[in-house]
Specification:
Layout lengths: L7 H14 L13 E2 L9 H11 L4 E6 L2 H13 L6 E4 L11 E2 L2 H8 L5 E6 H5 L2 H7 L7 E4 L5 E2 L24 H6 L11 H14 L4 H9 L6 H20 L15 H23 L13 H10 L9 H15 L12 E2 L2 E2 H10 L6 H11 L16 H19 L10 E4 L5 E4 L1 H10 L6 H8 L7
Parallel strand pairs: 2-5, 2-6, 3-4, 3-5
Antiparallel strand pairs: 1-7, 6-7, 8-9, 10-11
Length: 471
């Protein structure tokens, strides 16, 4: 493929990048690396400038950071079409038809894929930084980068610098541009005219104007190009969603247990909170449908976010316990693989779930299931409720046991005319199930006498009626 000829403004940008990022002869690269910023209008060829800059800087290992998964795939195509050669790897959950180059979120796999090559381009999203994927990969042996390009943000790191860098506008409210003389300020990367400027307060004001709808679009767009974070809650959601997507990619569903994690992110707790928000949204909708007032929708999951989770797993938020739905899903996959239905505890254990024990509990507890659950088990899994002769005999309560012993005492009284029962006497009686049982009546009478102070008045009255001697 012939090399793309740069336009004048693109050539100018590449030359400026080279001047900023190529160390002067005999000089050493600063510990934090060399950095520069390229600001170009949309559609003016930013990706081409990045590709050509990497080539002319002789950058072998290049990391390209983008805001979203959609842009990750698009940027890889742009770099390939711009003339970049060598392996291209993505750090994301994209798979199959979504992407034409290899992607992974596994740290060890990423290291193994990148380390053999002197010339390789890795594309990642900001979320992968929030999850610590790249940082852990460097600790595991991932080589450093010759060049890092932060697309749609406000910094590009140069050669041999820190393992990774990320520019955004998450500025603390109290932050001010460093002060001092012009040279000191410029050495920190700021124009001298901004020394002491209250940047944190300015960014907070911008967020407030944006939230009120008072900011013009011509101001919104350039801020977003710098990586403006309008809401930290949105950033937290995107990081959680990325982790949930990664966990689902590995496990095949989004019914994670509470202690589930993905690359250190606590997915189980995040999903638990998302389900609580979804249920609150459903309750609000129900109240509105009934014409009842709704005080506040704070904490309710938006339709957009609910759909994002449903796109990963439609059954992520069941109306019954998540544990039940997770076991149902795993049994369904087990049957789909051509295996037989597990029916006994210990038959099949998958992802920590004893599927045989779950099937047995479903059959024995059939009447406790909702109609929908019964239909799912019967029509999808082929599970039938347990027959009466399969059900275990109900356990007798302490009240049942006391009643049976009293029945034995009453039988003794009717036969003997008194309740002076020898200590070792055993009385046989026939229960409601027509089975004869032995009761150590002598010992029981002695126990009731010694516990007289704790017996209920009704029981004391019942025993007194058959001549119980309390002393």
């Amino acid at each position: 493929m012939p090399k793309v000829v740069l336009r004048a403004h693109q050539r100018e940008a590449v030359d400026a990048v080279r001047r900023a990022l190529e160390p002067a002869a005999g000089s050493r690269v600063p510990a934090r690396g060399l950095r520069t910023q390229v600001v170009m209008a949309t559609g003016s060829g930013k990706s081409l400038v990045s590709v050509r800059s990497a080539e002319e800087l002789r950058a072998g290992r290049v990391l390209v950071l983008v805001p979203s998964l959609d842009l990750l795939a698009q940027t890889e195509v742009a770099w390939r079409e711009g003339g970049r050669r060598g392996p291209m790897i993505g750090v994301s959950s994209l798979r199959g038809d979504e992407v034409v180059f290899p992607n992974t979120t596994d740290v060890d796999e990423l290291v193994d894929w990148v380390r053999p090559f002197d010339r390789v381009t890795v594309f990642a999203t900001y979320a992968s930084l929030g999850l610590g994927t790249l940082e852990r990969a460097h600790k595991a042996g991932l080589p450093g980068w010759d060049l890092i390009v932060v697309d749609e943000a406000h910094r590009t790191s140069g050669r041999i610098g820190k393992p990774w860098a990320h520019g955004d506008l998450k500025v603390p409210f109290t932050y001010r541009v460093p002060g001092g003389d012009d040279q000191a300020v410029e050495a920190e990367g700021w124009p001298a005219s901004l020394a002491g400027f209250p940047l944190g307060q300015w960014v907070a004001d911008a967020r407030r104007f944006y939230a009120r709808g008072d900011m013009d679009e011509d101001r919104v767009e350039p801020l977003e190009k710098l990586g403006m974070v309008w809401s930290h809650f949105d950033v937290a959601w995107e990081e959680g969603l990325a982790a949930a997507r990664g966990w689902a990619e590995v496990n095949g569903h989004l019914l994670a247990p509470l202690d589930a994690t993905h690359q250190g992110y606590r997915v189980g707790i995040w999903l638990k909170n998302a389900r609580a928000a979804a249920r609150k949204a459903a309750q609000i909708e129900q109240r509105r449908a009934e014409g009842l007032p709704v005080e506040s929708s704070a904490g309710a999951l938006s339709d957009e976010r609910r759909e994002q989770l449903e796109d990963i797993d439609p059954s992520w938020c069941p109306a019954w316990p998540v544990e039940w739905q997770r076991a149902f899903h795993l049994v369904r996959l087990h049957l789909k693989a051509g295996r037989t239905l597990p029916t006994e505890p210990g038959d099949v254990v998958h992802q920590g779930e004893d599927l045989g024990r779950w099937v047995r509990s479903v059959r024995l507890g059939w009447d406790k299931l909702t109609t929908a659950q019964q239909w799912m088990c019967e029509q999808v899994l082929g599970i039938e409720p347990a027959a009466e002769d399969e059900k275990p005999k109900p356990r007798r309560t302490q009240a049942d046991k006391w009643a049976m012993n009293y029945k034995a005492a009453h039988q003794f009284y009717e036969r003997e005319g008194h309740l002076r029962v020898p200590r070792k006497h055993v009385e046989r009686i026939v229960g409601e199930d027509q089975e004869e049982r032995e009761h150590k009546l002598g010992a029981w009478i002695g126990n009731q006498r010694s516990r007289a102070a704790t017996l209920s008045p009704e029981r004391v009255e019942q025993l007194s009626a058959i001549s119980m001697r309390w002393t």
